Amino acid sequence: EADVNVMLTDKEVEVNKKVKKSFCMPENTEFNPPIAWVAELVNFQEFLVARKPDNGGDKTYTDAAALTQDFASGALHPGDLKPSLSKALNALLEPLREGLAKQDVLKK
Fold first, then answer.
1. Are 42 and 86 in contact (CB under 8 A)?
2. Which of 5, 23, 8 is nearest to 82 (CA)?
3. pLDDT by residue (tens digit) across 49-92?
4. For a FRET experiment, which of 12, 41, 59, 88 has its CA 20 to 30 Å from that of 95?
């Protein structure tokens, strides 16, 4: 499970790898960990999906229902969702990583 669970101590590259490997079948919203993560993130901040103009351009979500609806309809693809999720998770974790790095307990 260490290769799929995102931990506070994970480096940016590790988070990116884990999110990329996560199960995220197109149009499936019944079991979709990336959708679940985003649903929690939008409680605290807007979620930006960065996409090429050919794929509809960037879109900002402020609630999980709209993102879930777009994903279910195929308007949002896993290839756009996952990199945006990685970026958001890393932005959220970075201040925590800095604080943890200063603690002696983790240096052992």
1. no
2. 23
3. 999 999 899 999 999 999 999 999 999 999 999 999 999 999 99
4. 59
Coil, strand, or helix at residue 2? coil
Q: What is the DSSP letter of 47?
A: E
Q: What are the Cα distances from residue 38, in Å, to 25, 66, 87, 95, 105?
A: 15, 11, 11, 19, 31
Integer CA distances (angstroms), 40 to 30, 34, 68, 94, 102, in order: 16, 10, 12, 17, 27
- Sign of the Cα torsion 32, 47, 77, 97 reads negative
84 contacts: CB under 8 Å, gap ≥ 6? 47, 48, 49, 50
- H helix or E strand, kind and range, residue 60: strand 59-61
What gap in Å lies between CA 37 and CA 31, rounded to an integer? 12
Verdict on whether the full-model pTM lies above 0.85: yes
Residue 36: CA count within 13 A, CB half-sphere: 9
